[in-house]
Amino acid sequence: MTFDFSPGRFLAVLSKEFVQMRRDRITFVMMIGVPIMQLLIFGYAINSDPRHLPTLVEMADEGPITRAILSGMETSTFFDFQGVVTGPGEGDRALRDGTANFVVVIPPDFERDVLRGLKPDILVEADGTDPTAIGGAAGAMPGIIDTAMAATLTGPLATAARPAAPFGVTVHRAYNPEGETSLNIVPGLLAVILSMTMVMITAVAIVREGERGTMETLIATPVRPAEVMAGKIAPYVLVGYVQTLVFLILARALFGVPFTGSPLAFFVGFNLFIVVNLALGFLISTVARSQMQAMQVSFFTLLPTILLSGFMFPFAAMPGWAQTIGSAIPATHFLRLVRKVMLKGADLSDVMGNVIAILLILLVISAIAMRRYRQTLD
Amino acid sequence: MTADVENAISVTGLTKRFSGRTVVDDFDMQVPKGAIYGFLGPNGSGKTTTIRMMCGLLTPDAGQGACLGYDILTEQAKIKARVGYMTQKFSLYEDLTIRENLDFIARMFAVPDRRSRVTETLADLGLTDRAGQLAGTLSGGWKQRLALAACMIHDPQLLLLDEPTAGVDPKARRDFWDEIRKLSAAGVTVLVSTHYMDEAIQCDFIAYIAYGKKLISGVAAEIPKMIGLSTYRVTGPDITALETRLRAEDAVAQVARFGAVLHVSGTDAAALDALAARMKGPQKWERKEAELEEAFIYLMSGAADNFSGAAA
Fold first, then answer.
1. Which residues of B touch A223 (CB under 8 A)?
2. pLDDT by residue (tens digit) across A49-97?
3. Rounded Cα gap, residues B2 and A371, in angstroms
4. Is A12 an interface residue toward B (CB < 8 Å)?
5. For A223, which of B93, B100, B108 is closest by C-beta distance?
6. ipTM given for this complex
């Protein structure tokens, strides 16, 4: 069969698609509204470095050292003292019902034992059901106590203090000196937003023709499959561009996310990512028989995109098999690319590995999609 | 394939299988140019599949043929450009307006002078005032008229109508057939599938298909003779009891009731005559010419519904 592509028919499909998009108000609003909402909610709400955690103190002793420690904890901003435990079991209850994340227990004769060099223990009971919540605060405890001790145990009491280490450790948080979670979350969100809308909208838009029977009208006309595909997909590529533009503006204006790298690298990566998502949507459309199914399958692909791509949780922390699954997800590579370009000032050569990974995934998805498409053609 | 000057459609041996099931089996058909050709058969008998193969929408697994002189296997694009295909279900865009739908279809066929053609079609339909209305808000009859207008917008030489009047009220159906006859008079060949008998009667030629096989085809008026049915018209009292008795008789192939009248038919004329002589009682028996109605009831009773199983 000869390959002829009629620009006239392509444009006809394209403009029809735009009219339908305009009529479908809810989808249209979703395409722009959902990304903005997600950006606002995730960007502002998610904080993996929580502060001001509710804390209770059980004081069996009191003195200058205790006071120094407690005030040191409070000024660290990790802990918010809610009060003092008065009766037995009250601390346990508070942990159990969640009114406190920490209960700090100062043992009896603490001050005296410190001065005698008996190394008494302060017990910090933490609610371990949420490791992320308590992790930062628990990690900061030794430092807080050392500082408090050093300030209090001066002069003749200095012998009771722990001897200082013979060297210092300085952690330099490169690219994100203040450890802002939003700098991690916001660039990654672009990957999630594009994955979600591009895959779902493409799958649904294609399946819709079949479900409503309009595909029958289409195939009875001289229009070519390539013209239909291009005409149907092009509007959504445009939607992807609009989403990305909105995203970049909001990321800069609201969250102060810098864009330090090469725009070319970003441009290449994001076009490729849009294409791979459209291909995935196309693949789903060859499987799904109804718009509902297309939506469900799209959602099914969304969860691993959020959980295994390194968007929410550190990729390196996952076991090997999970990393393997994660590596097959295009968003994994795209979000690395975005983080590199936006935060680390990467240029095209720095992100070549990610680009190639997305290309490989694209090849595989397209190959499967074309095979399935041929089978369902008749 | 040599161009067939007499026939709009000429196919032989068309066969189509879907996952091992033979849906259309060794199907031959000749549709003369300018004719209204009725395509009859029960649900699931393969009518839609056959129509689609004949206009190049589906590739047959076996067989060959020409549609408007173009090979159905290799020249689908040329066939599509000259054929108007109206689907069983309304398959225009419900979320586009009437004008947008017509305009879109016209663009698909690269209709010359598109805008005026669309405006003209709207005027012919009497929908000029409602051109901006969404197609999905039209009533069943209007949707069907719009669909017909849409598949006529590129002036096709052949019109394929797949159960065009399913679910449309009688008045709209009559109007629709007036329109079809008008088109036929203008030289357009029409192939229409239906299972309404009153529509079949309006056709010049008829083919009957069941279980994917063609049972009979020919000039509509000759179909009863081809089946070889003899018919008696029976009137009189106690017709219901008689009907039950007649059904048990071997000579009777079918008993069709039209109000207070029974049409008793059989393929063996002599046996039926003998029966008529034997049965004569209070009822009046009159020999009559078998008509298309009897022929169809006969055909349909032989091939109830193709979904109910039974291999052909």
1. 108
2. 788 899 999 988 888 888 888 888 888 888 999 888 887 788 888 889 8
3. 35
4. yes
5. B108
6. 0.78
